[in-house]
Amino acid sequence: MKSILDTINLNILKQIVENSYNSIVITDANLNNDGPKFLYVNQAFTKMTGYSFDEIKDKTPRILQGKKTERSVLDDLKNKCKNGEFFSGTTINYKKNGEEYNVEWNISPIKDESGQIIKFISIQKDITKDINYKISLEEKVKEQIEDIRKKDITILNQSKLAAMGEMVDAIAHQWKQPIGIIKLNVDMIKYDFNGKLIDEKYINKFQKSIFTQIEHTLNTLETFRTFLNPSEEAKTFNIENVLKNISILIKDEFIKYQIIIETTIEDSFEIYGFENEFKHFILNIINNAKDAYKNKKGIEDKIIKVKTYIDNNLKIIEISDFAGGISNDILPNIFNSYTTTKENDGGSGLGLYLTKQIVEKHNGNIEAFNHNKNGATFKASFL
């Protein structure tokens, strides 16, 4: 069966080549000295380079090369041509006026009936616009990444400030009782001195009481200092110890609002990562539940349930409240930045966004949903 090329006469074929959108070049097969010489170029080549055929006749493609033309590409081209193989590549060439352009081209050998290479044919395309567009797109992506990075830094700093404020408030609550006891002891010593009640036994008792309260405040301060300082390096930590430490941090604050935290350790497990950051994730959710109870009137049993267990090799932490649940309008976007469940309470929308970042940093995933007992559950799963 004859191909369509067999039915096209020479004149039609010439018109096809002449009017091709891509540059077409035919050279001889001489690979010695300066290389093969131009035998034919079409109009697209002249438009692309600025050279007419008369200007480059008997010259080699080196006329198009310059300081930015990649040597490695030319070496590959030469080797492929010597071996009679198909070549494809890209590099920078130069127009007649010295202007650079990015060229994509391929070269195929033309052989006679005996298999001897007699010519080379090359199809070339100016891809400068494509390259510039790609560079422009990459720059835009870099700018967007930088904008996101700056936004995340801003969010993180705002969240840290918010957490710092909460910690200072918690410290004040923790210190209120021991400071009050110390003040009472100091006030009483003057009256007891006037009443001649002070003796060695009294001094020993007084000293023990003061030292006990001082030790309590120092221990509290150390707990908060450790919590606020970023972890220097990742390590393995136990979830049960994490929950106990958090309980110390929030104890007085939650007593104030008559909120009970019920912790159920069905399975104890270890997490590898940054312990203090991990505490922030749990504390953020517990504080959200606390705020939900504060904003709801008429709830008698204010309970927050924290449960840990292992399911299908996943380490799971569930934190549930019974404060009415999360609005269906907010729930799908609950972990997005600046989405807040506290619109009437000055919420920034940063806590849960940062929570998600912390969970994912520790090879985990977190979801939020409303349960059928009129409340919300946050479920974090870790590998």
Automatic annotation (TrEMBL):
<dbReference type="InterPro" id="IPR004358">
    <property type="entry name" value="Sig_transdc_His_kin-like_C"/>
</dbReference>
<keyword id="KW-0808">Transferase</keyword>
<dbReference type="InterPro" id="IPR036890">
    <property type="entry name" value="HATPase_C_sf"/>
</dbReference>
<dbReference type="Pfam" id="PF13426">
    <property type="entry name" value="PAS_9"/>
</dbReference>
<keyword id="KW-0547">Nucleotide-binding</keyword>
<dbReference type="InterPro" id="IPR001610">
    <property type="entry name" value="PAC"/>
</dbReference>
<dbReference type="Pfam" id="PF02518">
    <property type="entry name" value="HATPase_c"/>
</dbReference>
<feature type="domain" description="Histidine kinase">
    <location>
        <begin position="170"/>
        <end position="383"/>
    </location>
</feature>
<dbReference type="InterPro" id="IPR000700">
    <property type="entry name" value="PAS-assoc_C"/>
</dbReference>
<feature type="domain" description="PAS">
    <location>
        <begin position="9"/>
        <end position="60"/>
    </location>
</feature>
<dbReference type="InterPro" id="IPR003661">
    <property type="entry name" value="HisK_dim/P_dom"/>
</dbReference>
<keyword id="KW-0067">ATP-binding</keyword>
<dbReference type="InterPro" id="IPR036097">
    <property type="entry name" value="HisK_dim/P_sf"/>
</dbReference>
<dbReference type="InterPro" id="IPR005467">
    <property type="entry name" value="His_kinase_dom"/>
</dbReference>
<keyword id="KW-0597">Phosphoprotein</keyword>
<keyword id="KW-0902">Two-component regulatory system</keyword>
<dbReference type="InterPro" id="IPR035965">
    <property type="entry name" value="PAS-like_dom_sf"/>
</dbReference>
<dbReference type="InterPro" id="IPR000014">
    <property type="entry name" value="PAS"/>
</dbReference>
<keyword id="KW-0418">Kinase</keyword>
<feature type="domain" description="PAC">
    <location>
        <begin position="85"/>
        <end position="139"/>
    </location>
</feature>
<dbReference type="InterPro" id="IPR003594">
    <property type="entry name" value="HATPase_dom"/>
</dbReference>
<protein>
    <recommendedName>
        <fullName>histidine kinase</fullName>
        <ecNumber>2.7.13.3</ecNumber>
    </recommendedName>
</protein>
